[in-house]
């Protein structure tokens, strides 16, 4: 049973990563690409967390936290950049 769940999780993470990569390449706008990269970072974090749960260790915990922080800071930075580029309405 645990093997089937692991296979299902791996399949879902693979499909999610593939969809995020496609959106990163084809995304018509900068915000689409940033959102896709944020999703890809979340998928990588989920894969690392799944690997830690399966193998019963916490060696990658710092890496997961760093990946999440990079995704968050990157998204906030791009959002501020996009807001600053919009024409101001008076």
Descriptive keywords:
transmembrane helix, 0% strand, cell membrane, 3 helices, 90 residues, 84% helix, mainly alpha
3D structure, described in words:
There is one protein chain. By secondary structure, this protein is mainly α. The protein has helices at 2-26, 30-55, 61-85. It has one domain (2-85). The chain contains three helices and no strands. α1 packs antiparallel against α2 (30-55) and α2 (30-55) runs antiparallel to α3 (61-85).
Largest sheet: none
Number of helices, counting only DSSP H or I runs of 4 residues or more:
3
Helix amount, in percent? over 70%
What series of H and E elements makes up the topology? Answer: HHH
Domains (count):
1
Mean pLDDT across all amino acids: 91
Strand content: under 5%
Coarse shape: elongated
The span between the termini is 62 Å
Number of strands: 0
Give the radius of gyration.
Answer: 17 Å
Low-confidence blocks of residues: none
In short:
The chain is mainly alpha-helical. The protein has helices spanning 2-26, 30-55, 61-85. The mean pLDDT is 91.
Structural topology:
Blueprint: H1 2-26, H2 30-55, H3 61-85
Helix pairs in contact: 1-2, 2-3
